[in-house]
Design a protein that fits this description.
The protein is an alpha+beta fold. It has one domain. Helices cover 23% and strands 29% of the residues. Strands 3-4-1-2-5 form a five-stranded antiparallel β-sheet, covered by helices on one side. The relative contact order is 0.22.
């Protein structure tokens, strides 16, 4: 069952939002077989601790592909994340829930370009 607020202690897939700064765009960090609702992201300036914005159970394809290994995937756009979900054959309802977060967690594709 997908959750917007992390509650599970069991390994699952968690999504974290890394905000933009002056040198890079915002990203969604997906951690497969995540063991906790917080992660430390190593940064050049200083490590950043992020809290999960969403979590879900692994599907069978992910279990077969990744086993018990913690695996990080970084997405620069919601479109990239959506394509990954299509490739993993995840339910459309799941992507709709995630896309509903795109208003709160903006990525480069959602930012207005000023002339």
């Amino acid at each position: 069952m997908p959750r917007l607020h992390p509650k599970s202690k069991a390994p699952c897939v968690r999504y974290f939002y890394l905000p933009a700064n002056s040198t890079r765009h915002a990203e969604i960090v997906q951690v497969i077989n995540s063991g906790g609702s917080k992660v430390k992201v190593p940064m050049r300036e200083e490590d950043v601790e992020l809290s999960a914005i969403f979590e879900r159970e692994l599907n069978m394809k992910e279990k077969l592909t990744y086993g018990n290994s913690e695996t990080w995937k970084v997405f620069n756009s919601w479109e990239e994340l959506e394509q990954d979900h299509v490739n993993l054959e995840l339910p459309n309802e799941l992507m709709l829930i995630l896309l509903s977060l795109s208003y709160r967690f903006t990525l480069e594709e959602n930012m207005a370009v000023s002339a």
